[in-house]
Amino acid sequence: MRSRWPERPRLLLAVPATHWDHENGSLTGRGVLKSDPQVPPPGGQPSPGDPQQSYPQQNHPPQGYPQQGYSQGYAPQGQQPYGGPPAEDPGRTLGIIGLVLSFFTAIIGLVVSIVALRKSKKAGFTNTPALIGVIVGIVTTVAGLVIAAVSIVALTAVLSQCAQLGPGVHDVNGVTVTCS
């Protein structure tokens, strides 16, 4: 019985097309896709009947490229290699502080959260606590402004009513108003 799938799938490999940039002292270039019918199937072992092939290890620069100053993963000295642990977000702690402050002092929490969010974006991180702090700070600031505006309008209405009625205790539409 003939299978409808080919015996060996063709795999597309991302092969970096790089060159050494002498001015910057680094490898530069962009990746290309390359079809390689000689690649073993997933699992890393060639299928039976295939000649044994050896593949070069890829944890060092190609021959002819300078090797000093490089660690495993092609990273120049002072930078993280590809497989290394990620760098820490510089605005994360400030974002958490801004989030907490935005519940108690909305404007201060909003400012601190915005500073933390900008620090994180500049370093290439997404800072969720800072983003939530900005949102909470904006919402609580707007809510505070609305409450303040309603309070001012209500106080102005009561004061103008007392100015019309004069000092004393008055009954207006079933509501007792005391003016002094």
From TrEMBL:
Region annotated Disordered, chain positions: 1-88
SUPFAM superfamilies: beta-sandwich domain of Sec23/24
Organism superkingdom: Bacteria
Keywords, sorted A to Z: Membrane, Transmembrane, Transmembrane helix
Compositionally biased tracts (Basic and acidic residues): 1-10
TM helices/strands, residue ranges: 94-117, 129-155
Pro residues bias (residue ranges): 38-49
Bias (Low complexity): 50-82
Name of the molecule in the record: DUF4190 domain-containing protein
Source organism (scientific name): Microlunatus aurantiacus
Lineage: Bacteria, Bacillati, Actinomycetota, Actinomycetes, Propionibacteriales
